[in-house]
Amino acid sequence: MRLRLWRGIDGKKNSKKLNKLYYLVFIALILLLIVLSIYFWNFHNSFSANKVEWGIFGDFVGGTLNPLFALLSLFAILYTIKIQTQELEYTREELQATKEELAKSRIAQEEQSEAFKIQNQSIAQQTFENTFYKLLEFLETCRRDIKDDSGHIGKYAIEFFFNTFKDVYLRTNQGSEYNPIHVFDETCKCLEGVKNEYEVFYKVYGNELGQYFKVLYNILKFIDTNESVTNKNIYANLLRAQLSRYELSLLFYNCLSDFGEEKMAPLIKKYHILKHLEECYLPNEHQYLWNEFNNKNENKLN
Q: Would you state the pLDDT for residue 47?
């Protein structure tokens, strides 16, 4: 709009400048008529047939008008130079205005691009959160579907499974059937023994616990691999808040086992999911395993 307005103004100015040049031409014609009139008025009343008089006439006209026409030509040249100088100045101003308009357009495009970027990030964040909370609901559904032999469901069933693994699979009966004496199995004090017993335990109860652990792993994987989330620990903390003390304890043994050591354990350590695990619920014989688990986690972080 600004450029079109300038072009309109320049057109009017150019028209006025050309009119001034026309004035010079008009003056030259007036001078020519004046000189001719003076000559014919004083010396002749009509055209002469004498060549000498025509030569005198030519000398008179040339001597009188040539200096005047030369002066007018000089004025015209100077005025033309002035016009060209002004045109160059107008051209520079128009180029500068064009440059400013392009700069403003570029800034507007960058702002628009940034707005689109923020909008896309917001949409991606919203999509992630919707999916994340749906996964939490699905995890709760899987938890409620867990049922033990005594009829307990959900978190109570998980408590039963943990106590069963701790008191039955990690211990051995050194008494009789009627007078059982359960002591900690020596083979289960080492990591290899724990893995073996957990494998036996999982073969019996994996049908109840398998889907629950798989969903838990996939939620962590979803958080870890999503690039639209900047602070992933917020969502990992929300996931951790869903887990009871017995879920954390059983999850610890799942991470030690072959079922969770390769994929589950690294994510559990990375996002400190077992941060609030209560050591008192673990057997004393496995305190060193818990310490090693934490030390490895700290070493990776460092």
A: 54
**pLDDT at site 302:** 40
Same domain, 90 and 173: no
Query: Both 55 and 101 in a single domain?
Result: yes
Q: Which domain holds residue 172?
A: 146-301
pLDDT band with cut points at 50, 70 and 90 for residue 271? very high
pLDDT more than 70, % of the chain: 77
DSSP letters, the chain, are -HHHHHHHHHHHHHHHHHHHHHHHHHHHHHHHHHHHHHHHHHH-SS----HHHHHHHHHHHHHHHHHHHHHHHHHHHHHHHHHHHHHHHHHHHHHHHHHHHHHHHHHHHHHHHHHHHHHHHHHHHHHHHHHHHHHHHHHHHHHHH-B-TTS-BTHHHHHHHHHHIIIIISEEE-S-SSS--EEE-GGGSSHHHHHHHHHHHHHHHHHHHHHHHHHHHHHHHHHHH-TT-S-HHHHHHHHHTT--HHHHHHHHHHHHSTTTTTTHHHHHHHTTTTTT--GGGS-GGGHHHHHHHHHHHHHHH-
Distance from C-alpha of 51 to C-alpha of 131, rounded to nearest angstrom: 112
Residue 109 lies in a domain: yes
Mean predicted confidence (pLDDT) in 89-99: 85
Which of these three, 77, 103, 119, is where a domain ends? 119
Is residue 134 one of the residues assigned to a domain? Answer: no
Structural domain contains residue 85: yes
Question: Are 179 and 84 in the same domain?
Answer: no
Give me the number of domains the chain comprises: 2
pTM tops 0.70: no
Q: In terms of Cα–Cα distance, which of 184, 121, 162 is closest to 277?
A: 162
Query: Are 254 and 202 members of one domain?
Result: yes
User: What are residue 171's DSSP bridge partners?
Assistant: 184
